[in-house]
Amino acid sequence: LRVDYATAPPGVPETIFVKLTPPDTGTRLFNGLMQLGRTEVDFYRDIRPCVPILAPNAFCGRAARHGPRFVLLLDDLTIAGARFATIDAPISLDDVKNVMRLFGRLHASQWESPRLETEWRWLRSFERNRNLPLERWISARSNAPCIERYADILPKEVRECSGLIHVHRNALERYWSAGPRTLIHGDSHVGNMFFCEDEVGLLDWQVVQRGQGIRDVGYFLMNSVDVEMRRGHERELVELYVGTLRSRGVPDAELDPDLLWDRYRSQSLYVWIASSVTASMARLQPDEVKRRALVRASAALLDHDAFALLDSIAKA
After folding, report:
1. Residue 308 neighbours by CB under 8 Å, 6+ apart
2. 3-state class of 194 per DSSP?
3. Angle at 259 between CA 257 and CA 298, to 5 degrees
4. Which of 28, 49, 83, 254 sees the fewest Cβ atoms within 10 Å?
5. What angle do CA 39, 20, 272 make, to 5 degrees?
């Protein structure tokens, strides 16, 4: 949106980005049920000034007390020369490494922060998520239609075993809620990022939450990075993330490598949940994007022997 001022103070932008409630009924309803607009408005009001990473600044944000309506006036990132990416476009290894450093800085800044239990208590978490039963119902109902529609690209083991994710969802959620926890983006695919020279920023904070930092790492690497690149550099990239946490003051005692790696492996189960829900909804993404996400999610499940890990989590 281009803005004309009667009297322009120094430094005010000539253009701003306006984010509004989605116009189509289905997405609007989903937005309202999940309180996505209100969450993002609250993020820019309460949390944005406290995170040491690139993210848009908000000039104004308002959300209805009830219902889906919201509005945000944000930086126009194109003025700064930001470039954007999508899941169906290649991303360089250098960019991927910068994303790992980004997550390390973000997560270290609020690692086990008292704010998560005080002024940011409104953040979604395992203990405080009134929509969790609805989310579980949607994901469970999405699994069979996804498998039926995309059977031609899904490996046999994924087709036969993915339903177990929903059978053992309670155990998974408890596993994912174990500490230490921090502030996480929660929807960290490459489409919610922007790139400025050697830095990476995050957009679309509608599901910002309190959780394990490895969620952001796993979702990005397994959803947004080419399968062969992930396989070739996965350990190195996770170690880069952990090294950034350590350099920012996270204690070694909270960075047990075996535990972190198992938690990382478990994120392949979440990536499947997210990808299958998206694939089952007609208007969320183009078909080619859904297919690419499902191929990557399936590869991650098998690469990490995720169904055996799920069994051990369920029996714990």
Report:
1. none
2. strand
3. 105
4. 49
5. 55
Nearest-CA neighbor of 112 among 178, 46, 200?
178
d(CA 103, CA 235): 16
Model pTM score: 0.94
Question: CB-side exposure of 162: number of CA atoms within 13 Å?
Answer: 34
Nearest Cα residue to 199 out of 77, 90, 51, 82 = 82
> Could you report the per-residue pLDDT of 42-78, keeping only the tens digit for each?
999 999 999 999 999 999 999 998 888 999 999 999 9
pLDDT above 80: residue 123 = yes
Cα angle value 271/17/34 (rounded, 5°): 40
CA distance 273 to 138: 10
**Nearest Cα to Cα of residue 153 among 5, 249, 297:** 297
196: part of which helix (H) or strand (E)?
strand 193-196
What are the strands of the beta sheet with 16-20, ordered from one edge?
A: 16-20, 70-75, 58-63
pLDDT at 197 over 90: no
- Residue 69 is which amino acid? R
The topology under which CATH files domain 82-315 is Aminoglycoside 3'-phosphotransferase; Chain: A, domain 2 (3.90.1200)
| Domain residue ranges of the chain, discontinuous segments joined by + | 82-315
Residue 87 has pLDDT above 90, yes or no: no
Task: Tell which wins on pLDDT, 212 or 33.
Answer: 212
- Tell me the H-state helices in 64-213: 93-109, 132-149, 156-161, 163-167, 169-176
